[in-house]
C-alpha cells in the first residue's frame, strides 16, 4: 500500500500566462500546470485529505520527507509520498511544441491536489524563524508567499530585528535548496505618525531593500499607513474592468440573456471587486440616535458606481435610469446592503473559529471590546454585527479522515419506496423511534416518539428562537433524543431511527465540519456511551418521507410542533445542553438576510420611483420576483420590458426630457407620448391593440401588461406589430 503506479507518474505540464505581467519574454511570466491521470488525482485527493487532517516550486524530495517525519506524519503516508515523488517523468507543452520526456527529480506537480499541502509541510520551518513567544514578532504564509512582522518603538529597532532574522532565512534557503529571489522582497514601515517615519533600508547581502509605500500580499494591497486606500482603488478598477469586459457579451439589443449576464456579473465581476472585503471595508450602518451613517461611506459610493454599471448591463436599461430602479430590475440589493451581507457572512465564519485556529484569540479579544483609538478591522466588524456573539464553533480538526460511521443509513430513491420501507420496519423490526424537528411559532422544537413494549416514549425539547437556530438543528436534536429513548429500553438490541430529513442523516454519517457540528458530535458521544453499555446494539437511521401518511412520522411532527411552542419533557442531565445551544451560524446568516430584504423593501416603497411603479405597474417587493418577468426571454425583449417599466424608453415624452427630440408629443394624437399612451390609447396603433386586447380580455392595463409574466406574450406581440422600437424587433425591417 506504499506504491504509486508508474503509469500515473507520467504527466504533461502545459504553460499558461500569468495575468498582468509586463513582459512575456521571461520564463517566470508563465505558470506550468500538470495534466495528470484522473485516477491518480482521485488517490492524491484522498491522501491530501488525510494530510490535511494532520496538519511546488523547487522542492527537495529528501528534505520534504524529513519534514513530514519531523511533523509526526504516519510512516505509511511518508512511504507512499516517497513512491509518489520518485521516478516521475514530464513533457513540457508550449503552444505546438512538446519537449522530450524529462526526469523530474525535484519539485511538485502544479495542479495536483496533493502539492499545496506537501509544500506547506516543506516550508513550515520557514515560519518558525521568529520566536513565537515574543509578541513583537510574527510570521505568516500561504504556499510560497511568506511575511515576517516585527514591532518596536522605532524603525531602527525594527531594522535591527529583521537583520537578526536574515541568517536564519538564508539558512532555511540553503537547507531546502530554495533560493530566495531577493529582488521580489517588499518592505513596509507602517505608522500613521508621519513625524516618526524614516525610510530606512534593509540590507541582505548585496541587496538593499528600500521601504515602499504599499505592497501586495495574497492579492491585498497593504499601504504603510494601513488606510487601505490603494486596495480600494484597485478594487474599483478591477470591478469596473470586469464589468466592461462582460458588456462585450451583451448589449441592450443583442447578446446573452438577462439570466446569464446576471450570473456572470455575480460570479465573476463582483468577486474580483470584493476580494478580501472584510479587511478593507468597514460596514456601513446607521448608529442608533444618529442621522449620519458610519463606516466606509465614501468607498461604498464608489463601489456603487460599479454596481450601477453592472445593473445597467444586466437590465438593458437607459443610462438615465435611477440606480434604485436598475437594482430592482437586475435583482441586485443596494450596494451597501449587498456588501454588508458579504461582510456579515465572513464575520460569522470568523466567530465560528475553534480555539486551535491562529486567529481565534484576536477574534475573541476584538469581539469583546471597541476601543476609542486604534481600532482594527476586526473591532469594526464585531461592532457592526453585535448579534455574532456566542456563535457555535466549527472545528475541522475534530473530523478524522479515516473515520468510519458506526451506524447504518438507508435512504430510498423515491418517496413511495421510503414510505413502504417505513411501514415494513414498523411491523417487522424490534424497535422503531420516529424523530422530527420543527420551526413553529417562532421557535425550533425537536421530538422523538416510539411505542415501547410497555408504554409510549416521548421526548420533547425547545432549542430556542428561529433567529438563532434552524430546523436542521432540530432534526439532529431529535436523533439525540432517539438515543435516549433507545437507552430507556434496555432489552433492545436492534433499533431504527426514522426521520424525514436527508441532510441530518448524511450529517451524522459523514461528520464534516459544518453548521450543527456540535450536535453531530453530541450524537456520536451519546452513541458511544450507549454502545459501551450495550455492545450488541445495532442502530439503523432511515429516511421516511414527510406528510405521506406514515403514522409515526406524523406523530413525531406533532410532538415537535408542541416542543416549539414550549411544551417540553424532562431530560437527563447529559442532554440539558440542548436547551442552551450556541447560536447557529446558518440561522444568523438567514436572519440577517431577511433583515436586509426588509430594509431594501422599505427603501423601495419610500422612493418616488418605487411608489410610481407600485401604483401603476408592479406592487411586488424587490427581490427575485421581478426576475420572473425576464425568464427565457431574448436579450432585446427583456431590455424593452425594463425600459417600458422604468419609463426611460425611446418614446417622445422621455426623449424630450433628455433633449433628444424637440417635442414630447405623439405625431398622430398630439398629446405626450408616454408609456401609457403608447400601450393603451395611441390612435396610430388601434388595429394592433385591438388584436391584443381580445387575447388579454378586459384586464388590458399597464399592470397586466408590464406587471406580470401572464400577458407577456401579448405585450411582446404588440411591440412587434407596432414596429415602434425597430432595434428591439425579432424581424427588423
From TrEMBL:
Pfam families the record matches: RNase_H, RVT_1
RNase H type-1 domain: residues covered: 427-565
Coiled-coil residue spans: none
PROSITE patterns to which the protein is assigned, alphabetical: RNASE_H_1, RT_POL
Molecular function terms, GO-annotated: nucleic acid binding; RNA-DNA hybrid ribonuclease activity
Residue stretches making up the Reverse transcriptase domain: 1-222
Source species, domain of life: Eukaryota
PANTHER family xref list: ENDONUCLEASE_EXONUCLEASE_PHOSPHATASE DOMAIN-CONTAINING PROTEIN-RELATED, REVERSE TRANSCRIPTASE
Protein name: RNase H type-1 domain-containing protein
Organism encoding this protein: Pycnoporus cinnabarinus
Amino acid at each position: 500500500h506504499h506504491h504509486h503506479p508508474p503509469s500515473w507518474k507520467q504527466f504533461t505540464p502545459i504553460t499558461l500566462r500569468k495575468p498582468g505581467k509586463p513582459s512575456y519574454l521571461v520564463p517566470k511570466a508563465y505558470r506550468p500546470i500538470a495534466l495528470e491521470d484522473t485516477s491518480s488525482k482521485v488517490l492524491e485527493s484522498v491522501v491530501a485529505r488525510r494530510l490535511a487532517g494532520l496538519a511546488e516550486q523547487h522542492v527537495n524530495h529528501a528534505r520534504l520527507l524529513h519534514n513530514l517525519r519531523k511533523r509526526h506524519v504516519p510512516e505509511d503516508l511518508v512511504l507512499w509520498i516517497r513512491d509518489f515523488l520518485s521516478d516521475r517523468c514530464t513533457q513540457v507543452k508550449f503552444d505546438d511544441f512538446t519537449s522530450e520526456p524529462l526526469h523530474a527529480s525535484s519539485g511538485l506537480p502544479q495542479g495536483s491536489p496533493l502539492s499545496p499541502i506537501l509544500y506547506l509541510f516543506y516550508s513550515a520551518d520557514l515560519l518558525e524563524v521568529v520566536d513565537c513567544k515574543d509578541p513583537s514578532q510574527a510570521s505568516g504564509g500561504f504556499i510560497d508567499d511568506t511575511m515576517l512582522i516585527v514591532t518596536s518603538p522605532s524603525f531602527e529597532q525594527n531594522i535591527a530585528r529583521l537583520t537578526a532574522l536574515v541568517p536564519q532565512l538564508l539558512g532555511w534557503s540553503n537547507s531546502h535548496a530554495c533560493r530566495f529571489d531577493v529582488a521580489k522582497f517588499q518592505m513596509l514601515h507602517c505608522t500613521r505618525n508621519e513625524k516618526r517615519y524614516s525610510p530606512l533600508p534593509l540590507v541582505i547581502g548585496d541587496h538593499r531593500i528600500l521601504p515602499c509605500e504599499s505592497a501586495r500580499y495574497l492579492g491585498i494591497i497593504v499601504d504603510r499607513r494601513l488606510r487601505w486606500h490603494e486596495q480600494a482603488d484597485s478594487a474599483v478598477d478591477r470591478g469596473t474592468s470586469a464589468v466592461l469586459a462582460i458588456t462585450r457579451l451583451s448589449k441592450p439589443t443583442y447578446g446573452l440573456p438577462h439570466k446569464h449576464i446576471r450570473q456572470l456579473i455575480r460570479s465573476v465581476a463582483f468577486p474580483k471587486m470584493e476580494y478580501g472585503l472584510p479587511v478593507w471595508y468597514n460596514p456601513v450602518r446607521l448608529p442608533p440616535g444618529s442621522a449620519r451613517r458610519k463606516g466606509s461611506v465614501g468607498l461604498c459610493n464608489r463601489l456603487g458606481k460599479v454596481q450601477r454599471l453592472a445593473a445597467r448591463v444586466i437590465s438593458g436599461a437607459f443610462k438615465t435610469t435611477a440606480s434604485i430602479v436598475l437594482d430592482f430590475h437586475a435583482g441586485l440589493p443596494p450596494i451597501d446592503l449587498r456588501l454588508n451581507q458579504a461582510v456579515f457572512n465572513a464575520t460569522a465564519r470568523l466567530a465560528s473559529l475553534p480555539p486551535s485556529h491562529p486567529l481565534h484569540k484576536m477574534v475573541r479579544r476584538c469581539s469583546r471590546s471597541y476601543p476609542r483609538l486604534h481600532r482594527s478591522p476586526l473591532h469594526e466588524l464585531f461592532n457592526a454585527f453585535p448579534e455574532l456573539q456566542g456563535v457555535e464553533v466549527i472545528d475541522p480538526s475534530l473530523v478524522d479522515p479515516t473515520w468510519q460511521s458506526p451506524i447504518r443509513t438507508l435512504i430510498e430513491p423515491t418517496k413511495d419506496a421510503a414510505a413502504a420501507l417505513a411501514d415494513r420496519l414498523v411491523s417487522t423490526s424490534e424497535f422503531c423511534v420516529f424523530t422530527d424537528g420543527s420551526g413553529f411559532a417562532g421557535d425550533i422544537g425537536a421530538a422523538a416518539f416510539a411505542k415501547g413494549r410497555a408504554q409510549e416514549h416521548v421526548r420533547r425539547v425547545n432549542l430556542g428562537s428561529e433567529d438563532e437556530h434552524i430546523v436542521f438543528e432540530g432534526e439532529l436534536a431529535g436523533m439525540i433524543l432517539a438515543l435516549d429513548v433507545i437507552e430507556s429500553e434496555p432489552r433492545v438490541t436492534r433499533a431504527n431511527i426514522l426521520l424525514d430529513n436527508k441532510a441530518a442523516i448524511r450529517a451524522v454519517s459523514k461528520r464534516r465540519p459544518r453548521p450543527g457540528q456540535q450536535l453531530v458530535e453530541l450524537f456520536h458521544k451519546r452513541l458511544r456511551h450507549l454502545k459501551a453499555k450495550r455492545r450488541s446494539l445495532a442502530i439503523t437511521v432511515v429516511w421516511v418521507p414527510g406528510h405521506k401518511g406514515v403514522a409515526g412520522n406524523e406523530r413525531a411532527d406533532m410532538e415537535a410542533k408542541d416542543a416549539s411552542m414550549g411544551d417540553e419533557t424532562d431530560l437527563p442531565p447529559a442532554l440539558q445542553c440542548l436547551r442552551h445551544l450556541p447560536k447557529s451560524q446558518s440561522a444568523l446568516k438567514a436572519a440577517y438576510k431577511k433583515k436586509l430584504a426588509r430594509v431594501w423593501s422599505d427603501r423601495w416603497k419610500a422612493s418616488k420611483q418605487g411608489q410610481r411603479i407600485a401604483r401603476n405597474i408592479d406592487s411586488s417587493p424587490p427581490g427575485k420576483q421581478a426576475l420572473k418577468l425576464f425568464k427565457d426571454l431574448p436579450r432585446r425583449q427583456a431590455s424593452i420590458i425594463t425600459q417600458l417599466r422604468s419609463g426611460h424608453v425611446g418614446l417622445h415624452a422621455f426623449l424630450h426630457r433628455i433633449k433628444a427630440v424637440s417635442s414630447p408629443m405623439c405625431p398622430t394624437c398630439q398629446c405626450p407620448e408616454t408609456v401609457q399612451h403608447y400601450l393603451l390609447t395611441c390612435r396610430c396603433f388601434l388595429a394592433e391593440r385591438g388584436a391584443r386586447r381580445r387575447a388579454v380580455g378586459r384586464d388590458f392595463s399597464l399592470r397586466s401588461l408590464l406587471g406580470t409574466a401572464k400577458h407577456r406574450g401579448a405585450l411582446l406581440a404588440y411591440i412587434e406589430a407596432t414596429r415602434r422600437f425597430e432595434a428591439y424587433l425579432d424581424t427588423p425591417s
